[in-house]
Amino acid sequence: MSHKIALIGFGTVGQGLCEILIDKKEYLKSKYDFSWEIVAISDPVKGSVYCSSGLEVEKLLKLAATGTSLEEYQCQHDNCKCNFGWDALKTIKDSNADTICELAFTNVETGMPAIDHCKAAFESGKNVVTSNKGPAAVDFAGMQALADENGVKFMIEGTVVSGTPIINLVDGPLAGCEISSIKGILNGTTNYILTQMEAGMEYSTALQKDQELGYAEADPTGDVEGFDAMAKVIILANVVMNTPITAKDVEREGITGITPAMIADAKAQNARWKLIGSIEKTVNGVKAAVKPEMVPMTHPLAGIMDATNALTFATDLMGDITIVGAGAGRTETGYSILTDILAIHRNN
Ligand code: HSE
């Protein structure tokens, strides 16, 4: 049976996911016996369409690429039963999807509207896969409890460092290791800016170039002042360290105070400024921070340049393990959604 998927939000991530699903259709079938159908897309700007028998994804991508409403979609089925104009909650509750991909624009401080979308999905017996940081950063324990209560999955690999395996690495291959600290470059935009500043570029030009490359948040203050990295630190503390911290528990400082002189001074000391997110287990819980640190060149994180992300886990059985990879991007975040959907399929 095909895995039925509904997308809430059809921006870069949703479109990236659809492109991968089309490109890898045969491979996913032969390697994992995984077949899929997109049954619904609901986007407040691009429009909404639902077909319980499955939508033709190529057509939807074309509509999105040409700025045409999804409600212009022409169904290929005889006796078409397409519904148009359903909002997110109706799509979540009333579609026949097995899994809701929650990819709507969300306020990271309140977690809304994604929290309401996740709750509605769980209460309707549907899994949620999301790259949205809001629900996990604001109420990971509540979301997980509601998913468990309803016998469905809450999958969040894409919330931290896109498809580079972090949450699934800790849950899967590193199961059995206790992790005493995590230290990482969790934001691509700030690392890109610091890299370009070291090469002589002005801060504002570097930020503009980063925005052109599509790494920055819609409001880049979230990146340069450390809010984006802070949300990831909160998620990691909750998921990896099982400690329910919130924003008020994280010391936060961005990179706007870093000057070219400070970068040159670090270089002279064989070091580099990096925006580091850290979580350390303590006797009282955890100590969590996001702040610029001068990292010695001998540390693996010092060599991480441009928009690449990296995390070092200190483990009891394996010592330090560092994972390096993309932290953002259309395909990379689209892939984070695919890897979670595949995990649901493979565990069923
Ligand atoms: N704006 C983020 C970054 C994207 O630059 O890393 C992923 O959260």
Description:
The structure is a single chain. 39% of the residues lie in helices and 23% in strands. The longest helix is centred in the last third of the chain and has 18 residues, at 330-347. The chain has 348 residues and is an alpha/beta fold. The protein has 2 domains: 3-163 and 330-347, 3-Layer(aba) Sandwich (Rossmann fold), CATH 3.40.50.720; 168-326, Dihydrodipicolinate Reductase, domain 2, CATH 3.30.360. A hairpin with a 2-residue loop joins strand 10 (271-282) and strand 11. The strands form 2 sheets. Strands 4-3-2-1-5-6-7 form a 7-stranded mixed β-sheet, with helices on both faces. The structure holds L-homoserine (HSE). L-homoserine binds at residues 187-189, 215-217, 223, 228, 327-328.
Q: Report helical residue fraction.
A: 25-40%
**Helix-strand pattern, N to C?**
EHHEEHEHEHEHEHEHHHHEHEEEEH
CATH class of the largest domain: Alpha Beta
Sequence of strands across the biggest β-sheet = 4-3-2-1-5-6-7
- Give the oligomeric state of the chains in this entry, treating copies of one chain as homo and distinct chains as hetero: single chain
Low-confidence spans: none
Structural class: alpha/beta
Write down the Rg: 21 Å
Note the overall shape.
Answer: globular
CATH architecture term of the largest domain: 3-Layer(aba) Sandwich
Ions, cofactors and other ligands present here are: L-homoserine
Biggest sheet record = 7 strands, mixed
| Total domain units | 2
User: Got a strand count?
Assistant: 13
Q: DSSP strand (E) fraction?
A: 15-25%
Q: What is the average of the pLDDT values? A: 96
